[in-house]
Task: structure prediction
Amino acid sequence: MNITAESYGHSVMLILRGELTADSLEAFSKAVDHQLESRDVIDVVLNLEAMPFLDSAGLEFLLDLQDRLAESRMGQVKLARPDENVRKILEITRLDSAFQVYDDPARAVQAVQT
Result:
């Protein structure tokens, strides 16, 4: 998995390339922790445009991250531009209602900044 970060004030957008599975979870977790070392970061937007798949470990991590941000920083996790496979996974697991999903990454960033 390749992860790129873009900062937007109190939010960070992580652009994920590759699958988010148990095998790649450690690298993703380290990237998230690195971004959250800054106390200025409150919200995380995940750009999933180039992420074709995530498994149950990836889903569990996203839910844990959402809880972690809400409890420690009053922050949020927003998902941007998931591909069709990821959307279906979210629907099948009924987690589509657990996350706000945006078709445009810029709108997701705007949503956490307002």
Summary: The radius of gyration is 13 Å.
